[in-house]
Amino acid sequence: MLTSLPVRWLVPAFLPILRLLLTAFPESPQGDSFPPPGPLRPDYDFVIVGGGTAGSVLAARLAEVHKWRVLLLEAGGPAPVESIVPGFSRVFYFPTKNTWNFHLHPQRHALYSYSNRSSPVPQGKVLGGTSAVNGMLYVRGNKRDFDNWAALGNPGWDYESVLPYFKKAEGYSGPPLGETEEYHGRSGPLTVVPKTGEHLEFTSAFKRAGLQLGFRNIDPSGPDQIGFTHTDYTIRGGERWHTARAYLKYASHLPNLHILTHATVLRVLFNEDKRAIGVEYLHKGKVRRVLASREVILSAGALLSPKLLMLSGLGHPDALRFHHLPVVAKVPGVGQNLQDHMCLYGLTWTLGSHVPNTVSDIFNPKQVSDYVHHRKGAFTSPIGQFGHAWANVLQKGDPEWPDVQLYMVSSGLAQEGILSSVALGIDKHKYLEQYSPLFGRSGMTIMPYLMRPKSLGSVVLKSRDPLDPPIVDPNYLSHPDDVQALVNGIKLAVEVGRTPAFVKTLGAKLYSKPLRSCLAYQFGSDEYWRCFVKNMATTFYHFAGTCKMGPASDPFSVVDHNLRVRGVAGLRVVDASVMPVVVSGNPMAAIIMIAERAADLLKEEWGATAGVVGQQYSSTTHVHQELSSGSSSSGYQTANT
Description:
Blueprint: H1 4-8, H2 10-22, E1 43-49, H3 53-62, E2 70-73, H4 81-84, E3 99-103, E4 120-124, H5 143-151, H6 159-169, E5 170-172, E6 190-195, H7 201-212, E7 227-229, E8 231-233, E9 235-236, E10 239-240, H8 243-251, E11 257-260, E12 263-270, E13 276-283, E14 286-298, H9 305-311, E15 314-315, H10 317-322, E16 329-330, E17 343-344, E18 348-350, H11 365-374, E19 386-391, E20 404-409, H12 418-424, H13 428-435, E21 443-450, E22 458-460, E23 471-473, H14 480-498, H15 500-506, E24 509-510, H16 526-536, E25 537-538, E26 571-573, H17 588-605, H18 622-629
Parallel strand pairs: 1-2, 1-14, 2-11, 5-6, 14-26, 15-16
Antiparallel strand pairs: 3-4, 6-8, 7-19, 9-10, 12-13, 13-14, 17-25, 18-21, 18-24, 19-20, 20-21, 22-23
Helix pairs in contact: 3-8, 3-17, 6-17, 7-15, 14-16
């Protein structure tokens, strides 16, 4: 039997061969490339830490102000060619040089069937960040999420205020949307495409199942979220369209923007007045410094932004002193309030013999050829068919504010064999005992996600060494409502699988082999499902909240409603960590919205003209016109190199 370690590294070891195959033809996709920055300045107006989902957006938008000198520091490099192919998105569940390969701290109340009660946490270490390695799902969340942010003391973050920024970013390329068209942007830099069509029998069955259960079919980015729907992706021309491609690629030609890759920031530098004046970073084996005359902005993500703040002397004084770090400012909320959309794996259905196994598309030579030469076929989106649904299963509070999301996938946990186990960190012996009877058979899964977790965790320092990973402890299932929400989510998923849409069309049958750890309970009872949740639910990598946005009256707020860090000057955080409460859906779209709005806040505060909400990203046209005409009088202030 293969052990976990060799199997876990099997996919990364295969990547060089995969890259060679992908680039063997003139029509092949190409990995991203960015012009070298040239000699760096000793100082910039803005230094942005992290060229990920938010940082790429922010750097491009700030560089629109031609007199501002902007430096973007990214610990990784440009995205590799395999990230460009949507059908290879699952590659990044495994460790590569393009991801931060963290692990969860062993959980007390959850992950009972996972090795060491932990799970791998791959986060993007690449330009574009996690948007360059994730599943590309475009979901905004519920309008009540943003109204709640405002109600918590964050003016300007209500739904009506943030909707224009969603529309400004979005370049929706699907068919007309009727009554929800006004909620979409058609000319933004981030291309969004729906996966719909007459041959998507699983997606169609899922949407019909919703109707049969009394739900509506909805627009996943419309004003109302309760209901069933298809999936939207950030894909353009059959290729992944992450934020570095959508924003940074064009802006990288601007002379006032420098992008330095493979630069790991170690700490923020402060003067005696507690003003951020620059950063210290590691590049090519040497520790260097660069100054910021206006601001330092952390966009390193919900796990690394709080780590950098603590390494720089901001956090709970006792925790800082424990690691012998000087206390610059007492900000006890740093690293607290960690939230995630816990995902329940393992709820699997077998299907009729007439239903093909969609995983087989990965090994179909014609599908590979169609993609490489024509950008057509299965590899133009994540392999398989998918569907979303949102529901309020606890029936508490606002009935239009969901607490569970269902995600239907046209393959089960077992269809991908042992690789599923090692990618997720499930104990291989428990996995094989439970799911090996299904290997090679067609199947599907419906995964309930926990949308509004009440269990809060933390990110803390492992040591004062900046190169040590943080300790990531989500404290999963410490609140009983989270367990009950997932149990009720399972029961809704089981109802979906019982509808005529699935039973008559696909021959769906719930796999009812009891989990060995739960044999003390009757299969299908609430007690059994509680046990199943504690064994099989784990992270879905949607971390947020660790640099909480809130009013001064909230002792655990880290940034104010303008994203300025409390207790110091010249320092902001712009990424998922500022969310006071995680949104009710995949967070990428909301992170991009945060960065778009932050850029306008910065422009307004520093006396520059804010971007016109809803306009097309100027660099996609204006910059190319400038470059093609050879104009040198564009108004850009050239960096002194």
